[in-house]
Specification:
Layout (H helix, E strand, L loop, with lengths): L7 E4 L3 H15 L3 E4 L3 E5 L9 E6 L2 H10 L7 E3 L2 H9 L4 E3 L4 H11 L4 E7 L6 H7 L3 E12 L4 H7 L5 E5 L2 H11 L4 E5 L2 H5 L3 H6 L1 E2 L5 H12 L2
Parallel strand pairs: 1-2, 1-9, 4-5, 4-7, 5-6, 7-8, 9-10, 10-11
Antiparallel strand pairs: 3-8
Helix pairs in contact: 2-3, 4-5
Length: about 230
């Protein structure tokens, strides 16, 4: 990366998630220039939550935790979480949380080994990947999924246009195949370098963007931060 090029990190996740990631990025790398232009927002799709008969909760996103916390004051159930960020959100909400420290595969492996008893409820978004509840049910656990929020596409407005006018390199972390598709539609042919959380995220991009994409070594936030760090300070 040229010495005189100041990179911009373009964050297009829902605003709260983008702000958290921006904070993590600056804590790790210092005063990085960041632009937040959300292409999605979190919208609850239920108005209440019945936890009768439930023995444990499963979360695969901080958005799921935050939506849960807004729906009920019940904090009595243990939470099984896909990674450390989700577990931190669960603990901040008052839950006792266990982190699988990775992705959906790690969470399924952890829970299949631990064999928690009773009915397990995966509180998820409308758009999910990994079929966590289905795989746990196949492993003999009493797991089911319930969608409690949606990540609805939104018009980024002038924030995205301003970010794409940046003179230096533009780095765009992408965390899911759906967000990658929305991103590609929004940026068109802009000279952006996507940083994909996984090969599946990269493969959701059109060929031109996919060819420029950098894929994190592991599908988690720390690996995304390391991938960005390697581009910003090679």
């Amino acid at each position: 990366m040229p010495d005189n090029a100041a990179p911009l990190v373009l964050l297009t996740r829902p605003r709260a998630a983008s702000a958290r990631f921006a904070g993590d990025l600056r804590a790790a790398l210092g005063p990085v220039e960041v632009a937040i232009a959300p292409l999605m927002e979190i919208v609850p799709v239920v108005s209440s939550l019945d936890l009768a008969g439930v023995s444990g909760l499963i979360f695969t996103s901080a958005a799921g935790v935050e939506t849960f916390a807004a729906l009920t004051t019940d904090r009595s159930l243990p939470a099984w979480c896909v990674g450390d960020r989700t577990a931190e959100a669960a603990r901040a909400a008052g839950l006792t949380a266990t982190s699988a420290g990775g992705d959906a595969d790690a969470l399924v492996a952890l829970m299949a080994g631990a064999r928690p008893e009773g009915r397990l409820l995966h509180l998820a978004g409308v758009h999910t990947r990994g079929d966590v509840a289905g795989r746990l049910a196949a492993a003999g656990l009493m797991a089911e999924a319930r969608a409690i929020y949606d990540q609805q596409a939104v018009d980024p407005g002038p924030d995205l246009a301003a970010a794409l006018a940046h003179d230096g390199p533009i780095l765009a972390p992408l965390f899911s195949p759906r967000s990658a598709k929305l991103f590609a539609r929004a940026v068109g042919g802009a000279p952006v370098t996507p940083v994909a959380m996984s090969p599946a995220v990269r493969d959701a991009l059109p060929e031109t963007l996919a060819a420029r994409a950098v894929v994190a070594r592991h599908p988690d936030a720390p690996s995304m931060l390391r991938a960005l760090a390697a581009l910003i300070s090679p």
